[in-house]
Amino acid sequence: MSEQLLKQILEKLNKMDDEQQQLIQKVDNIADEQQQIKQAVMETNESVTQLEQIQMDQQHIIDLLSARSIQHEAELKRIK
Hints:
Residues 2-36 form a coiled coil. Helices cover 96% and strands 0% of the residues.
C-alpha cells in the first residue's frame, strides 16, 4: 500500500474514534439525565402519596362533620 493510502486510512480511523468518543459522551449524558428524571419521579411520587393521605384524612373529617351536622339538625327539629 502507498503511504498516502495509509494516511487516509489512519485519518479515517482517527475520525471514527473521535465520533465514537462523542457518542460515548452523549450516552453518558443521557444516563445522567435519566437518573435525574428517575429522582424527580420518585420525589413526585412521594409528594402525591402524601397528598393522597392528606386528602383521605380531610375526607374523613368532612364525613364526621357531616354526620354531626345531621345529628344537630335532627336534635334542633326535635327541640322545636
